[in-house]
Amino acid sequence: MMVELIGVSKVYPNGVIALSNINLSINKGEFVFVVGSSGAGKSTLIKLLLKEEEPTTGQIIVNGEDISRLKRSKIPHHRRNIGVVFQDFRLLPNKTVYENIEFAMLVAGNPIKDVKKHIYSVLDMVGLVDKANSYPHQLSGGEQQRVSLARAVVNKPLILIADEPTGNLDPDNSWAIMQIINDINRRGTTVLMVTHAKDIVDRMRKRVVTLVKGNIVKDQIKGAYDI
Ligand SMILES: Nc1ncnc2c1ncn2[C@@H]1O[C@H](COP(=O)(O)OP(=O)(O)OP(=O)(O)O)[C@@H](O)[C@H]1O
């Protein structure tokens, strides 16, 4: 099992119950869509997995490790297991495409040899070798998201979390991003993608976990977007 949530609840200090006794198991190599209306608890789930928030009850096990018991000093090591992409790309504006990816490797203290070759291999995967020396503002939204995906996987994470990765993109760019995420998954990375994109979910025929008010109300093997 790559990710396991056992009896996980999250009650924020203001009393809002964002997640209520969640049980969820995700196998190594699985692809899971998480869907649900606004406020259903999707972002909270991601924050718990990244250990940006602590669960109120329950256990969260990632790659065999109970992250609710993790020492503060072990959090960076835990986060290196997870690559993340967001709706708003979050590239560093003053660094080139190459430097954005290089920086992610440096920060992770990555022991990967031949940094340059490795950066070009992830750029090749997203079809942007020719943009290595461009700055983010010189790229389209779709291209920026491709860079952000290259950066997310450069340290070979076990899990890719994509938080509405197509939220700012038109249908063609959305579909291109979806294909890259699917390729990343086929190469063995477990993928958890939060999305509101009904057309994409319905076309991909992957596992779909549906949240309503902090509860999993549906978990379908080859599911559809149905809220
Ligand atoms: N830091 C916080 N403090 C208090 N309440 C919060 C906090 N973060 C989220 N909430 C509340 O918890 C509930 C779940 O929020 P969450 O952001 O997880 O939903 P979501 O499914 O990601 O929604 P969206 O699709 O709008 O991003 C909501 O009622 C929200 O108002």
Automatic annotation (TrEMBL):
GO terms for molecular function: ATP binding; ATP hydrolysis activity; transmembrane transporter activity. It is a peripheral membrane protein. It comes from the Bacteria. InterPro entries: AAA+_ATPase (IPR003593), ABC_transporter-like_ATP-bd (IPR003439), ABC_transporter-like_CS (IPR017871), ABC_transpr_LolD-like (IPR015854), Cell_div_FtsE (IPR005286), P-loop_NTPase (IPR027417). GO terms for biological process: cell division. The keyword Metal-binding does not apply. GO terms for cellular component: plasma membrane. SMART domains: AAA (SM00382). The keyword Cell membrane applies. It is found in: Cell membrane. Part of the ABC transporter FtsEX involved in cellular division. Homodimer. Forms a membrane-associated complex with FtsX. This is Cell division ATP-binding protein FtsE. It comes from Caldanaerobius fijiensis DSM 17918.
